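Practice problem 4.
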């Protein structure tokens, strides 16, 4: 069955899904996006994802392309048209079509809305979590507003490619002070030698990960200690455990960093517990 996309008010076949050449998302990466996991027909953390999308649009002074209720309806209809129950739903909003100029266009401008969805194997993700993943550290060369989920992702792409070439699943980004910020497309966590769960605070211009927030709630509910603070790449290498979170990786143990095993090179008890808590939350 051919896939269906949504482009500015119309449901169209994927191979006919186009935007104008003067769309500012194409010209300047002047856009924002969200990726929502859909498991057994349920959109996971739908409201927080929409909260973040609206915040990103607000920070960039974009006009909402449709109302929030309309976007939720489009999401459901798009999944139905593609007959998907386990999928990734992609939502992208750009400032719209205008004559190419760096400054914001004058006057009323209609934002562009593009949405796609594709089948996704969450079972494979859960299986991978049983053995964990390898990661590699890369310098964080991104812009200073990483709290906005913008489509300007070239530094992330370069970091992810470097990780892939190093035989790793993900790139762990490291700032100029030698501290871990986040992954190229994930939030990064460690468990220190006291059993405390540690992750970088949002005030440091870290993307407010939706799965990150869910994991914090689950950890607090089950009396797992959490500390939001900076930690160095060397501290991470010496950690008792490491793991990452995202809409696509869910909760994923890290067993190797830059070729060195984390602890005994196997998923630890805290990460394993949080993986199970997350899948219980997701209903899988």
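Answer key:
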């Amino acid at each position: 069955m051919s896939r269906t996309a949504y482009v500015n008010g119309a449901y169209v076949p994927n191979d006919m899904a186009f935007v104008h050449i003067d769309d500012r998302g194409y010209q300047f990466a002047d856009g924002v996006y969200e990726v929502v996991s859909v498991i057994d027909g349920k959109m996971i953390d739908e409201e927080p994802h929409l909260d973040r999308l609206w915040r990103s649009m607000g920070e960039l002074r974009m006009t909402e392309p449709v109302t929030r209720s309309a976007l939720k309806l489009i999401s459901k209809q798009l999944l139905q048209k593609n007959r998907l129950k386990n999928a990734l739903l992609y939502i992208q909003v750009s400032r719209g079509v205008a004559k190419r100029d760096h400054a914001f266009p004058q006057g009323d401008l209609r934002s562009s809305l593009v949405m796609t969805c594709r089948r996704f194997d969450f079972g494979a993700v859960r299986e991978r979590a049983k053995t964990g993943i390898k990661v590699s550290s890369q310098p964080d060369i991104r812009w200073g507003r990483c709290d906005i989920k913008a489509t300007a992702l070239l530094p992330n792409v370069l970091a992810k490619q470097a990780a892939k070439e190093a035989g790793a699943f993900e790139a762990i980004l490291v700032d100029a002070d030698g501290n871990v910020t986040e992954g190229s497309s994930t939030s990064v966590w460690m468990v220190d030698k006291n059993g405390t769960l540690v992750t970088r605070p949002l005030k440091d211009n870290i993307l407010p990960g939706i799965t990150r927030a869910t994991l914090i709630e689950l950890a607090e509910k089950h009396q797992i200690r959490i500390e939001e603070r900076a930690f160095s790449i060397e501290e991470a290498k010496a950690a008792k455990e490491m793991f990452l979170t995202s809409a696509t990786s869910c909760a994923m143990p890290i067993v190797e960093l830059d070729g060195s095993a984390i602890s005994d090179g196997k998923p630890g008890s805290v990460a394993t517990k949080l993986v199970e808590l997350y899948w219980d939350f997701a209903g899988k």
